[in-house]
Amino acid sequence: MELAPSNSNQQHENNNSNKVQGLHCSVKNYEWGKPCRDSLVAKLFSMNSGSLQSSQLDEDQPYAELWMGSHVSGPSFIVFDGSQQRVTLKSWLLENPNVLGPKVVEKWGGDLPFLFKVLSVDKALSIQAHPDKELARTLHKLHPDVYKDGNHKPEMALAVTEFEALCGFVTLKELKAVLTVPEVVELVVAENVNSVLQITDEDGEEKVKPILKSLFTDIMSAGKERVAGAVDRLRSRLHKESQVRQLTEKEQLVLRLEKQYPSDVGVIAAFFLNHVKLAPGEALFLGANEPHAYICGECIECMATSDNVVRAGLTPKHRDVQTLCSMLTYKQGSPEILRGVPINQYVNKYIPPFEEFEIDCCILPQGEKVVFPAVPGPSIFLVTVGEGMMTTESPKGYPITEGHVLFVAANTEITVSSAPQLHLFRTGVNSRFFQDS
Ligand SMILES: [Zn+2]
C-alpha cells in the first residue's frame, strides 16, 4: 500500500506530512465471524495489509472484526512507505499529540478516544452489556485479566448489509406475552410472573423494572441442567407447532439461536429482548448497561476506546451473570434507530449521544468530489468500495482504494474524489463535544 508520502522519521519534525497517515490494521478471528470467503472483514483486511507477508488470509478461519485505532488488544500501525518499520498508532500519537488537537488532548490525553471497527457476523455474539465508567474502573481493578481497561464503552453499529440484533428489554405488553411461554415460566419464580400480570400500563416503567430484574435474574442464573431441559422442550414444541401454525418472528429467531448455541440460556433470554433489524444505512447505539447481542450481518462499529464486555449467554467465553444482571438499567421498549443527518449531497452524519465519537457515511458516485471540512479533532477514514484520491491543502494527493484506512490529523480539510464510485466511512470525535466545550 502506498499511502503516506513521507518515508522517514523526518515527518516527526514536519507537521505538514503528519496530516494524513495510512494505517495497517489488526483483525480478530473470533469464532462467530463470517467464513473467510464471505467476510467483508477478511476482504478489507487483505486489501488493507497489501503485500505484508504476515497478513495472508487463512481460508479456514472466520474473520470477525477489523480494528482501526489505538487499543492495545488490536493495534493499528502507521505505514511508512518503503520501510519495514512498524510503529503503533498509539506510540506515534504519544510522540505527535498535536495531531489530536488541544481539546482532545485536554479531555482524553495523548490517545484516540474512539475505536473504529468493521464486523462480519455469521453467528450471534454473546448477550452482553458494557459497564459505565464507575463500574468499569471497579471491574478492571478486581479482575484485570477479564476487564482489560478501566474505560466505559458506549457503542454504535451502522449497518452495511441488513443487520440483526437483540437490544434492550421488550415492553410491558410483550413481557406479559413472554410470560405465557411455558419454558420461560418453568425457570422463573411464580410470584414474579403474578406481579407482572398485575401491573397496568398506567403504573409506568419504574414499577416494572425491579420485577423485570428479578425475572431476568431467575432465567440467567438458573442451573445448567434446568436450562438445557427447558431449551430442549422449547425446541421440540416449536418444531411440532410449526407444522400447524406460522411461528412468530421471535420464535423463529429462538430456533436459529438454539442451533448455534444448543442448551444455552441465551436462547430463552432472547424472549426478553427486542429483535431489531437494521437496513443498510441505519444505526443503533448502545449506552452503558444496556443488554444486547448482535445476531448477523455486517456493520461499521464505533465505540469509546475500551474492550470491556460483561457477558452472560450465547457464548463459550467467561460469563459474569451476577454482574450483568445487577448492572442493567432494565429500560423497556424499542431502541432509537438513527438514519443519519445529510451534511451534503453525499455525506450522512450519525451522531450518538456520546462525546467520544460520530460516524460519517459517504457514498460518492463516479467522478464526483466532496469536501470534509476541518474539525478540531482526529479522524479515521475507511474506504469500503471503489477507489479515488484524497487531498489536503498540499498539492500531493493520496490514491485511496478499498481497504485503505487513513488517520487524519485535527484541523485538516480533506477533499475526496472518486474514480469509479467510492464508499467511505469517517469516524471522529462527536461534533457536539467541540460545540459544548
Ligand atoms: Zn457490545
From TrEMBL:
Its cofactor is Zn(2+). Binds 1 zinc ion per subunit. Zn(2+) binds at residues 128, 130, 155, 292. GO terms for molecular function: mannose-6-phosphate isomerase activity; zinc ion binding. InterPro entries: Man6P_Isoase-1, Mannose-6-P_Isomerase, Pmannose_isomerase-type1_CS, PMI_typeI_cat, PMI_typeI_hel, RmlC-like_jellyroll, RmlC_Cupin_sf. Residues 1-20 are annotated as: Disordered. It holds the Pfam family PMI_typeI_hel. Residues 22-169 form the Phosphomannose isomerase type I catalytic domain. Residues 1-18 have a biased composition (Low complexity). Its EC number is 5.3.1.8. GO terms for biological process: carbohydrate metabolic process; GDP-mannose biosynthetic process; response to cadmium ion; response to L-ascorbic acid; response to light stimulus; response to zinc ion. The keyword Zinc applies. Residues 200-273 form the Phosphomannose isomerase type I helical insertion domain. GO terms for cellular component: cytosol. The active site is at residue 311. It catalyses: D-mannose 6-phosphate = D-fructose 6-phosphate. Pathway: Nucleotide-sugar biosynthesis; GDP-alpha-D-mannose biosynthesis; alpha-D-mannose 1-phosphate from D-fructose 6-phosphate: step 1/2. SUPFAM superfamilies: RmlC-like cupins. It is an enzyme of class 5 (isomerase). Keywords: Isomerase, Metal-binding, Zinc. Belongs to the mannose-6-phosphate isomerase type 1 family. This is mannose-6-phosphate isomerase. It comes from Glycine soja (Wild soybean).
